[in-house]
Amino acid sequence: MFNRFPILRIPLVVFTEVVAQLDPAEIVSMSLCSKRSLNILKSNQLKNSRNWELEMLDQDDNKPNCPRVVIFLIDKCRYLEVLSARSISDLKSQNPQFVNIGSHRVPAAFHKGLLQTYWEDRVQGLKAITDYTSSLFSLPVSNVTIYKNSLWMFEWVSKRQTVPLKKVFWWTAFRKNEDFWDDEVFSSAMRQCSPTNKLYILSEPSVNYRLTERLPKVNEIEISKAGWITLDNLMSIDSIEICIDESQLSTVDITKFLKNWLAGGMPRMEYIIITSKNFNELEVFDEELQAYVVPIEEKRKYQKNPFGFEFEFVGGYSMQRKDGIKATINFRNGSFHMAKWND
C-alpha cells in the first residue's frame, strides 16, 4: 500500500522547487485537483512561465475534432499540449471524473498523456480551457492556429487582451475529404486577421482566387501553396521577412519587383525568398536593371534572429539603390533570394 504525500503542506520554499521541476501539463493537472491547489499554484510565482507562450489550436489531422491549448517552451523550442476540449459525444466512460474549468464543471479523462475535457459546445470549451490556462500561468494568448471554421478566434482574442499575437497560423487539414478554404472565407480571414508578429498562411483558396484585400502588416510572413499570389499582392506586402512558396510568379514579375524596390518600394523588407518553376535567371536583368547590378563571388549569411529565416548567399548579384542601400540577389534551384544589408 502506498501512502499519500501531503504536497500542499510542505514549506513554500520546498513546494516552489517541486513545482519548478514540473512541466506545464503536470502543473495544469495538479491545479485541477482542488481549489486549494489551484490557489497555491496561482499565488506561487512560476518563474519558468516567463519563457513560455500560450497557443490555441482548433484541430488538425493528428487530433481531429480536438481543440486544445499548447504551451511553447521558448528556451527548449518545444511544444507541450496541456488541455483539450472534445465533444461530449466522444466521451466513452460511464463514470467519468469531473473537473472545474472556471465556472464550468465538466467530465475529464486522460488519453495518451493529454488531459481531455468534454463539452456540449467545443468552441465554448476551447475558450474556457484557454482562459483557465492563461489565468493559471498569467500568460496572454501568444499564438493561434486556425482552420476555415475558426475565424472567431481573431475577434475573441482581440477582445480578451490588449497584447497582440506573436504568431498566427492559417491551416488546411490535409485529409482527402477536406475541402479547400472557401474564397470568401479566405478573404474574410484577411480582413479579420489580428495584428501579429508572424503570419503563416498554410491554407489554400481555389485556383481562380484573386486577393483584393491588402495582406496584414507583420514582421514575418510565410505563404505556402502561393499560386494565388500576384505581382500586385507581392508588392503590397508590408513585412521584414517574406517567404512565398510554390508561386506562379514569372521572370518578368521578378524584374518588375526589383525595379519597384529600386524606386523605394517595400521599405521594411530585409529578406525575401520566392519559389517558382517559371524563373529564368538569365532574363531577369534587363537593360534598365543592369546599370544597378554587379556580379559578385563573396559569401554572406543572412539571419535576423535564431528562430527566423537563414540563408547563405554564395555569389550572386549586388544591387544598390540611389540612396546607397545595398542588397544581394541569388537564384538557386528555382528560388529567388534577396537580402537588404543595413551596414
TrEMBL record:
Signal sequence span is 1-20
- Transmembrane stretches, by residue range? none
Query: Which superkingdom is the protein from?
Result: Eukaryota
What start-end ranges are recorded for coiled-coil regions in this protein? Answer: none
- InterPro entries the UniProt entry points to: F-box_dom, F-box_Sdz-33
Task: List UniProt keywords, sorted A-Z.
Answer: Signal
UniProt keyword Signal, yes or no: yes
Stretches assigned to the F-box domain? 4-55
Signal found in the keyword field = yes
Task: Cite the PANTHER family for this sequence.
Answer: F-BOX ASSOCIATED DOMAIN-CONTAINING PROTEIN-RELATED, F-BOX-CONTAINING HYPOTHETICAL PROTEIN C.ELEGANS
**Name this protein carries in UniProt:** F-box domain-containing protein
The gene name on file is Cnig_chr_IV.g13136
